[in-house]
Specification:
- The protein is mainly alpha-helical.
- It contains 6 helices and 4 strands; from the N terminus they run αααββββααα.
- The chain folds into 2 domains: 66 residues; 189 residues, f41 fragment of flagellin, N-terminal domain, CATH 1.20.1330.10.
- α1 runs antiparallel to α5.
- The longest helix is centred in the first third of the chain and has 55 residues.
Length: 281
């Protein structure tokens, strides 16, 4: 700041100093008022270049994690559809087991065995119908061809989960089709019972695999939700304004603006004191 010399009036150094101070106050006041108006601490890269860069990275990470969480929700829905279909097949197999157990008893006559055989055929057809109707995005989930799938469950390229349902759940694949089950005699029914028990074990394995994957998805979803909150917290601290602090600073500079304006007015009047010397002469 230049030293004022009140005896030289051609350039009013005191007024220039006051003017510079007023401009500085106005600039800082405008900055804090802008932050209050936008709610952001960084309104341009010039405000904080490093902070802007870091905040943008955090913003991208948080938004990427949010999409990954949505992806996990889609995976959970897909798994629920597959599980629902397998649960229904499991119920059918248990019903088939009950009917075969009846046929394994020699108290049944030929007409009763024929009725059981007919019901088993209908149940096998229903299993195939469930396999055909259990789809996601137009793709069958339970026919053994839903394999080699990759789910994006994070915001990094490597955050993927491989999944597939390699077991076919059609009646023929489970060995419970029309041609596989014979209950015409008690001994044939016993063989059919073994086939159904094997099919039930296969179904249970599928349920275990899907359930394990669903549990992993639940854990990943919870972990990503926590990460999103923490990332947004860091972003908010860097990028957004502390409204209480900004209001306090704005109030301070409003007062300084008034005092600097008053001092500029006084500095502009100071050269008039030289007139007293001229009048005295």
């Amino acid at each position: 700041m230049a030293n004022a010399d009140l005896s030289r009036i051609n350039v009013n150094i005191a007024a220039l100093n006051a003017l510079n101070a007023l401009r500085d106050v106005n600039s800082k006041l405008a900055l804090h008022q802008l932050r209050l108006a936008t709610g952001r601490r960084i309104n341009s890269a010039a405000d904080d270049p490093a902070g802007m860069t870091f905040a943008k990275k955090l913003n991208g990470r948080a938004r990427g994690l949010a999409v990954a969480r949505d992806n996990i929700g889609d995976v959970q829905n897909l798994l629920s559809v597959a599980e629902g279909g397998i649960q229904n097949i499991s119920e059918i197999l248990i019903t088939m087991k009950e009917k075969i157990l009846q046929a394994a008893n020699d108290t049944l006559g030929s007409s009763e065995r024929t009725a059981v055989e007919s019901q088993l055929d209908d149940l096998a057809a229903e299993i195939n119908q469930i396999v055909d109707s259990t789809t996601w995005g137009g793709t069958k989930l339970l026919d053994g061809n839903y394999t080699g799938k990759q789910f994006q469950v994070g915001e990094q390229a490597s955050d993927t989960l491989s999944f597939g349902i390699t077991q076919s759940h059609t009646a023929s694949s489970l060995s419970v089709a029309d041609s596989d089950l014979d209950v015409s005699t008690s001994s044939a029914a016993s063989s059919a019972l073994a086939s159904v028990n094997t099919a039930i074990n296969t179904i249970n394995s599928s349920l275990q695999s899907i359930g394990s994957t669903a549990a992993r998805m639940t854990i990943k979803e919870a972990n990503i939700s926590v990460a999103i909150t923490n990332v947004w917290s860091s972003y908010n601290r860097i990028y957004n304004a502390d409204m209480a602090a900004e209001q306090m600073e704005a109030t301070k500079y409003l007062v300084l603006q008034q005092t600097a304006t008053a001092m500029l007015a006084q500095a502009n009047l100071a050269p008039q004191t030289i007139l007293s010397l001229i009048r005295g002469a």
